[in-house]
Specification:
Length: about 250
């Protein structure tokens, strides 16, 4: 069995399409240490999404046990590429280290792991916490930008427009959603974009429904977390719902 081979995992968000920086850094790091990267896996998806929604990460997990010889290292750019939530990070890390028996190496964060074994789990937890904090700061910046754009008239609120022009469509759309119809199917039927349907469901339908329905499989979702968001002039409630059937998670602000 080779002791110097690795698989490499890259993740870039949908707004950060260039994966070349991560590939170059990982390639240079591995080459200097004589490590052969036998396969690359690249997800172009948000770090906020869980493992079940990352096709290339799932493929990596399925491929490694079948590889001969088995790779030894799991290389990635930094910890935030793996996950931006603490819970999801340690879930994936457990699979990498304990089920796949790979050595996890975030090449940009590796210097922080050169500490005693007793302190290494603490450092991992701290880095995962910083990644989660970064995700929240990004979410807030995007939210503030959207608020300014709506205030300046650059973005039209689809719900408010339909309430004025076609309220019956809102009722019919919510009825479709409550029966478990996928959002993309609803969008095609109504001649709307997927994002417009997503906004209607999150800001209108769910306020008028007693239960939360999974947007992916139509099953009932359960409340996983509730927190307060202080926006200065008002306070909003952030709720996270989880689907036990397919693992889907959604975040709602009410």
């Amino acid at each position: 069995m080779s002791t110097r081979s690795a698989v490499a995992y890259i993740r870039v968000s949908t707004v950060e399409q260039d994966e070349e920086t991560q590939i170059r850094e990982i390639s240079d790091w591995a080459e200097r240490r004589g490590i052969n990267i036998v396969r690359w896996y690249i997800d172009k998806i948000s770090g906020a999404l869980n493992m079940e929604k990352r096709p290339m990460l799932r493929r990596l997990i399925n491929d490694v046990p079948l590889m001969n010889p088995r790779p030894v290292f799991f290389l990635t750019y930094d910890i935030s590429r793996l996950a931006r939530s603490i819970e999801e990070f340690f879930k994936i890390l457990h699979i990498i280290e304990n089920e796949l028996n790979l050595v996890f190496i975030p090449v940009k964060d590796l210097s922080m792991f050169n500490i005693s074994p007793e302190l290494r789990p603490v450092m991992r937890a701290l880095l995962a916490t910083f990644a989660a904090l970064e995700r929240e700061l990004i979410r807030r910046r995007v939210h503030d930008s959207m608020v300014r754009a709506r205030r300046d008239g650059k973005i039209v609120n689809i719900v408010e427009r339909l309430e004025r022009e076609n309220p019956s469509m809102l009722i019919e759309l919510c009825r479709d959603y409550s029966t478990g119809t996928p959002l993309r199917t609803i969008a095609r039927r109504r001649g709307l974009s997927y994002y417009a349907v997503w906004r209607i469901v999150n800001t209108y339908c769910r306020k008028n429904m007693n239960t939360r329905t999974c947007t992916r499989c139509g099953h009932r979702m359960v409340l996983e977390d509730r927190s307060i968001i202080d926006m200065g002039d008002r306070v909003r409630i952030r709720e996270v719902y989880y689907c036990r059937n397919c693992g889907n998670r959604i975040e709602i602000e009410v």
